Each structure stands twice: as structure tokens, then as C-alpha cells.
Amino acid sequence: MLGYGYYFDPTYLLVIIGAVLSIWASSRVNSTYNKYSRVRSMTGMTGAEAARMILNYNGLSDVRVEHVSGSLTDHYDPRTKVLRLSDSTYGSGSVAAIGVAAHECGHAVQDKDGYVPLKIRGALVPVANLGSALGLPIVILGLIFGLSYTFIQIGIWVFAAAVLFQIVTLPVEFNASGRALQMLQSYRILTEEETGYCRKVLSAAALTYVAAAASSILQLLRLYLLAGGRRNRD
């Protein structure tokens, strides 16, 4: 038997707020990226060429730059030392594409420098995946079948690992963007004006991480409230 009415659960408001934040952030990054993807850089470099230059300047000639399908699926893999750029970034000479490529290079430089938050995030990946997959189901099963409060608490703590991952991700992403903007201007890949456009793209992208963290925190709060209601009735 559910602790909160089956037909009306006021804690769903937290889920709705999180969903709205995520939708807004996604819309913002897409509109900003689309706007500056139509602005060509003065150098004429592609995202892949800019990435290669940045990596070489930082003594990372061993890091490969590869093409991966999709849009904004760009990422750096610290395990294989491979920087993968998406269809919308790899061959594009836009300010937006170069900014995204530089951001991923920022992660590669973090890896080289032993940036602590990046190491922590990497260590949290397995438990975060477990928390995302099992945390919520454990709590919901505990509520539906009237299992012990301890069982429900386990689900909350498991889910909290995924929330912690989202929180640790924030400084990692902000720092990578800061490095990217500095390198783009220092290496004269973008002009000062173009760097300003790039800052808008990366700032919009950062909102998606903020929204994801906020959404996870709200979901964790919801689980805590549900569990608290169950404990009060025991």
C-alpha cells in the first residue's frame, strides 16, 4: 500500500520542477548552439583541427581525435585517451563547434594535470550507474510492498550515489569550459569577439549539468519525504 495516495502524490511536484528545469536547459543549449553554429570562425579551422592544435600545444599528441556519430555526443575518454567529436563538431568551422571541441580538450588537459574532481567523478561512475538503475526501484518497491524502513533507506543511499556524481560533475564541467576559453584565445584560435560567442555556448551547455544536478537533488528529496511518511506510520 502506497504511503501517499495512489491518485495524488504531492511530492510529484518536485519531479515536475526537475523536469521543467531540464527541458528549459536543453532548449537553451540547443537554441544557443544553433545560433552560433552559423557563425564561422575567422581562422577557418574545423572542430577537429582546433582540437588537434590544442592537444599538441599541451603535450597531448598521444591523445587521438576521432569522429563519432550524432549531434553533441562529444566526449573525452580518459581510459583510452581518445577525444571523440560528433557530426556537428568534427568537420564544422563554426564558433560553436570549436568551442565544444575545446571544452573536450579541457577534459583531456584535466586528465593530464591529475585534476582531482575529474578523478573523483571517474571513481564514482560504477556506483553512480548502480544508483541510477536501482535506487528509485528499491524505494518504490519498499513503499508498494510495505517493506521495512531500513530497506527503503538502502534505496535512498544507493540513489544518493548518483546524486553525488551529478554534483561532482559541476566543477569538472565548469573548469573544462574555463580552460577551453583561455586556450582558444591564448592560442589565437578565436578572436576576442568569437571567444565571447563561444562563452555563451559553453555557459548554455553548463546549464544542462546544473539542471541535471538540481533534478537529481529534487528526486532525492522526494524519496526522503516518501520514506519519512512511511516511517511516521510504522
From TrEMBL:
Keywords, ordered alphabetically: Membrane, Transmembrane, Transmembrane helix
Species: Eisenbergiella tayi
Protein name stated in the entry: Peptidase
Transmembrane intervals: 12-30, 127-148, 154-176, 197-221
Keyword Transmembrane applies: yes
Keyword Coiled coil part of the UniProt annotation: no
InterPro entries (alphabetical): Zn_peptidase_2
PANTHER family linked: MEMBRANE PROTEASE YUGP-RELATED (PTHR36434)
Pfam families: Zn_peptidase_2
